[in-house]
């Protein structure tokens, strides 16, 4: 296992009110918050399409092999006692 930092969080599916406990990967170099495509499909989360695709670049500046980000989800997230709704970009994560 690498030296990544993970944080236990709870995501709530707004349509079903089902609470999902997961470990979120903290990426201090990222310019946005992302969620894995497979996770979105597995949990039946509703997505919203962007009007224009968003280009995805790797840390070394190259284009991400999984292509552009086309959609996002808005999800209630709980971290300890803190709760907020996050906009998460849907993409295929490594």
TrEMBL record:
CDD domains xref list: retropepsin_like
Any coiled-coil regions, as ranges: none
Organism, scientific name: Jaapia argillacea MUCL 33604
A family per Pfam: gag-asp_proteas
Entry-linked InterPro entries: Peptidase_aspartic_dom_sf (IPR021109)
Alphabetized Gene3D superfamilies for the sequence: Acid Proteases
Domain of life according to the entry: Eukaryota
Name used for this protein in its record: Peptidase A2 domain-containing protein
